[in-house]
Amino acid sequence: MIIAFIIVIGLLTRSKFLNTLIYSGVGDYLYALMIYFIVGFVFNKKDSRWILIYSVFICYLIELQQLYQADWIVNLRTNRFVALVLGRGFLMSDLFAYTIGTLTGYFLEKSFSKMGKST
After folding, report:
1. Per-domain residue ranges of the chain
2. What is the pTM of this model?
3. How remote is the C-alpha of 99 from its chain's centroid?
């Protein structure tokens, strides 16, 4: 449910109306937060630090692949869904948003796991 909620909020930040009101890095932050929770869901037996490192790696890899500008992938990125997954162009600021987003997921997980253990 967390992943679905993040997707909905992230898509809303990409709408034309909200995109003018919200800093564009919020979408990248939410994307990284979603990646953290997806990796945590898929690899639920792994340590949180492993999930953090793997999530950052995935996000950075997705951003770095945007430096590749062959015609076939540029054309592929014109599809809205593909652009949401792969992005369109490299921005160094996105790496910062990805780092903050995955760290947020890590600390949220740590906070909730501490609350669960204290009850």
Report:
1. 2-111
2. 0.78
3. 9
Burial classification of residue 93, based on how many CB atoms lie within 10 Å of its CB (0-12 exposed, 13-18 middle, 19 or more buried): exposed
Instruction: Decide if 30 contacts 6 (C-beta within 8 A).
Output: yes
The amino acid at 110: K
Per-residue burial over 10-27, b if 16 or more Cβ lie within 10 Å, else e, is beebbeeeeeeeeeebbb
89 DSSP assignment: S
pLDDT given at position 114: 77
Output the pLDDT for position 14. Answer: 66
Q: What is the mean pLDDT of each run of 10 residues along the chain (119 residues)?
A: 78 63 74 95 95 97 94 92 86 93 95 73
Q: What radius of gyration do the chain's Cα atoms show? A: 15
pLDDT value of residue 41: 94
Cα–Cα distances in angstroms (integers) from residue 42 to residues 54, 55, 56, in the given order: 12, 12, 15
Contact 28, 101 (CB under 8 A): yes
Buried b (16+ CB within 10 A) or exposed e, 64-79: eebeeeeeeeeeebee
